[in-house]
Amino acid sequence: MMLIPCPWCGPRNETEFHYGGQADVSYPAEPQQLSDADWARFLFYRANPKGIFTERWNHQAGCRRWFTIRRDTTTNEIFQDDSHEAVTR
Amino acid sequence: MTGEYRLAEGGRINRDRPVRFRFDGHDYEGFDGDTLASALLSNGVHQVGTSIRYGRPRGIASAGPEEPNALVQIEEPFPEPMLTATTVELRDGLVASSLPGQGRLATEPDPARYDAINAHCDVLIVGAGPTGLAAALSAARSGARVIIADADTEFGGSLLGSGEALDHAPAGRWIDRVTAELRDTPDVTVLPHTTVFGRYDDNYLVAVEHRGEDAFTRQRTWHIRAREVVLATGSHERPLVFPGNDRPGTMLATSARTYVHRYGVLPGRRAVVFTTNDSAYAAAIDLHDAGVEIAAVVDVRPVATTLWTARCVERGIQILTSCAVTGTSGTDRVSGAQISPVPSADSAPTVPSELDCDLLLVSGGWNPAVHLHSQARGTVRYSEEIGALVPDSTPRGVRSVGAAAGSFTTGECLRTGSEAGRDAAREAGFGADTAEVPGAPSGPVTPPQPTWLLPGVPAESGDEQFVDLARDATVADVRKAVGAGMSSVEHIKRFTTIGTAHDQGKTSGLLSSGVIAELLGVEVAQVGATTFRPPYAPVAFAALAGRDRGDLYDPVRVTAMHDWHLTQDCPFENVGQWKRPWYYPQPGEDMDSAVLRECHAVRTGVGMQDVSTLGKIDVQGPDAAEFLDLVYTNKMSTLKVGRIRYGLMCHADGMVFDDGTVMRTGEHRYLISTTSGGAAGVLEWLEDWLQTEWPHLQVHLTSVTEHWATIALAGPRSREVLARVTSDIDLDNDAFPFMSWTDGTVAGKAARVCRISFSGELAFEINVPWWHGREVWEALYQAGSDQDITPYGTETMHVLRAEKGFPIVGQDTDGTVTPHDLGMSWAVSKKKDDFLGMRSFSRADTVRSDRKHLVGLLPPADSAVVPEGTQLVELAELPEPPVPMLGHITSSYRSAALDRPFALALVKSGRDRIGQTIYGHVGDRLVPVEITEPVFYDKEGNRRDG
What we know:
The structure holds two protein chains of two kinds.
Chain A: E1 3-6, E2 10-13, E3 18-22, H1 36-44, E4 52-58, E5 66-72, E6 84-85
Antiparallel strand pairs in A: 1-2, 3-4, 4-5, 5-6
Chain B: E1 14-23, E2 26-32, H1 36-42, E3 47-50, E4 57-59, E5 71-76, E6 80-84, E7 94-98, E8 114-126, H2 130-141, E9 146-149, H3 159-162, E10 165-166, E11 169-170, H4 171-184, E12 188-191, E13 194-200, E14 204-210, E15 219-231, E16 235-237, E17 250-252, H5 253-263, E18 270-275, H6 279-290, E19 293-299, H7 306-315, E20 319-321, E21 323-329, E22 336-341, E23 353-356, E24 359-363, E25 366-368, H8 371-375, E26 380-383, E27 388-391, E28 398-400, H9 410-427, E29 466-468, E30 473-474, H10 475-483, H11 489-496, H12 509-520, H13 524-527, H14 541-545, H15 562-567, E31 572-575, E32 578-581, H16 591-604, E33 607-610, E34 615-620, H17 624-631, E35 644-650, E36 656-666, E37 669-674, H18 679-693, E38 700-703, E39 708-714, H19 718-723, E40 741-746, E41 749-754, E42 763-769, H20 773-783, E43 790-791, H21 794-803, E44 852-858, E45 871-873, E46 887-895, E47 900-908, E48 917-922, E49 925-932
Parallel strand pairs in B: 1-7, 8-9, 8-15, 9-12, 15-28, 17-24, 18-19, 18-24, 19-20, 33-43
Antiparallel strand pairs in B: 1-2, 3-4, 5-6, 5-7, 10-11, 13-14, 14-15, 16-25, 21-22, 22-23, 26-27, 29-30, 31-32, 33-39, 34-37, 34-38, 35-36, 36-37, 39-42, 40-41, 41-42, 44-47, 44-49, 45-46, 45-48, 46-47, 48-49
Helix pairs in contact in B: 2-4, 2-9, 5-6, 6-7, 10-12, 16-21
């Protein structure tokens, strides 16, 4: 049960959150101009690192805000000071 | 016969309170403070059942949770399987039986209560032996919030069973003094009989507190979030592997000592003590002093420690160094031990000598209880010095100390415990110091000699040398695994099942690593150990479930009209957490006939349905229109105030994920509806885009699902019925056309009425504030009584919408279906620059001509309904596998209006195959079905205006 730092509500139990996958995969500015391959890359390709991962969470059972944290996927250590309200996906 | 092995005095039992109990059909007596095991031993009962594979007699082997043998089934007070006799508290009226193999669950509901509690603390101390108590004292005096938990019924750990003195006084005095101080310190929580069984991320630890059979809640699960954790979990004595090491009467040496000191019980009359280390000498001395004859101390080491030798000599106890027990005799109980010298390179083989005994005490060294440390992702290393695994790395916020860290003298445990408590409190931000600790006697220690396989014991006897007593797994089994080429301890564990029983290898785990290492000819460190997983000790599911069972298992959501539905005895369908009426049976009706009647009523008269569960989201803000244009496939900005539009939402991959209606309620305001089960997901999805991708849009989203109770009034007579309960709404079709809404009064309550139809019939959706829901529902029911107004449930709603070819997202779609696949290209705007999903509609995969389309299917008119999920194939006879699949049936019902079965299905290139016949695979038959348009009823849409 991870303790996840919501930038608005403070640290809360993992069960209050919903995972949002890799952060900073921004929606392409002009999707219609992209090749099928580039669009597929946006849709389907995500990093899955062993180690530090920048990822999104939604405080679903709390303030409903989306935010970004960095987490070590091998230890689940979250770099607490680093969480911020997400402005990119 | 009661208590002939009970000492006349001593022990921490309450001799004023005798306790009667029954085991395997015999009545016995023990005392308050006994465990089932100590009470049985006091009556001379060692054997508690037979082994799981070979049916060999097995006895009590330990005095704690590491017990591999003494599994019992509790019958009274309440059936509970698979408990260890060494941890069952004796109580009056207890009825138990021995248990080879599986236990028996109760067939009747458990009358006891189970509960859960959440707690936060600065320092959690696991274990209240000398180490844990010293740690708690340091931490508690700093003002930190401290929780100290111990699995045992009372605090003290090893001190309870060793008869040791602290500061020249019985250790019990120190234990009582410390425990009292802890109890009196504010912010310290003292939890005896509480097993911390799991450590999870960020120091989330879960414990189960055994509160007793008479407590308000029998067991309570503690969910503890701790800043710092001190693991003072102690260690487990390890048995030894030798032929016949499983005979009842064979017991861990220190456990025997515990039976003497803590319970005043002699586990036998004449003992052989077999050891590889010093600790068993204390047991030999204490048992001797309590009246047990010690036949010999058999030590594999060439030299015994001087101090212990002197004490043995004083008492006339013979010590056989460089010797080992290499066999036992006896039928149901050990009656003799064979002793052989440990062979060396130059010694000749010798004939073993036999010593008579009724008790064989063994000590193969001590395993620090590193379970929680490992669960915290702490690594362990094999220490040659003590012949066991010890904590290596230190995980964040977790420190192991005392015997759990490989320190085995009481003095060192007290000192390091006190320091660990101080350090943990400091780490948590408190100015802590070490609490003073009492003096404990100590002397020089001779290093143990880790022993796995005894040299000189023939390999043939491998099937009598037990490594894991609980699993009946032997050296022969390990030899077989190694012979088959296995070298990983994880593989061998799974092949031999060693370490997979209720005790999770507490006594057998490292032992098997040692045996594997010897058979492979490598170091134990290279073999390592298997993963330590929670739970540390078995936990009852009832304790984990707590109060979350029955009606409280999951939150239930009900509508404002729910109590009315209950009066109709209708069955409910679970939609997410919602309870929705499924159908309303009349006396003698089954579901099929009820649904046909309800369908007929809506098509020919008037019906009403509670549709309050549909998700509703209020969308407000100057950019609301722009926002909705981006998330729906259709254009919502052109919708006029007062009008309603059906909308589809897709993920960026172009697949439909929700649908519903969009009402424009103002220039900058919309009310959108979602599927009943999808409301939370849609809100999260919309928030995601609004917050992260389009934060410049000024839009606010509010869930208003439970603000509005909604009643669908459907059927050709619906206008007539509604007219009777409203005077300020012009219901004329021109004034109030299809897909518009208006505010007015219905049954005296402010209402928002929509012309929406999910059945194809003339229909109104009446929204009123939630708390007026039932009143308005009853008023409408009353108003339609002479028209035979018919309440209908979700099943009828499904049939009616399927007759019209309206898909249900999540039933007729599965996340691989585009709007075009559904034949709903009309709902996809071509006038927008972009919306979620748009780009994907031109991907190579989504423009394939052989995608699955939503079509109708007609089985023969006189056939049964073809089950939903039926696979569809091309031919009337199945070809050799693999059989190409064309798709599957997504919705299937009998139609009252058509008087025949019909279905919706996703079929490859379905729209290009209308009129063709394919086959549904039902059981072992192939049923012909004709592919049709998905709209079966009123294709022209003439009925929606009444």
